[in-house]
Design brief:
alpha+beta; 3 helices
Length: 69
């Protein structure tokens, strides 16, 4: 995938996703901002972990991050 000339990084995407060294795109889980008191400790631990994006979505995210791969 070639980077277009003068393509800028989409800053909103760079704050929400990260690309690993092997090229996987990782995202955080929803539901971790507030209302945590009624959630079980196990659920709160699971929400801490990053999740991998499916390849179809990862392709679109990588297009917005021209310098990350």
């Amino acid at each position: 995938m070639r980077r277009a000339r003068n393509q800028k990084t989409k800053k909103s995407v760079s704050k929400r996703f990260k690309v690993t060294g092997t090229g996987k795109v990782m995202r955080g889980h929803a539901g971790r901002r507030h209302l945590l008191a009624h959630k079980s400790p196990a659920q709160r631990r699971r929400l801490r972990q990053d999740a991998e994006l499916p390849p179809g979505d990862a392709y679109r995210i990588k297009e917005c991050l021209p310098f990350s791969h």
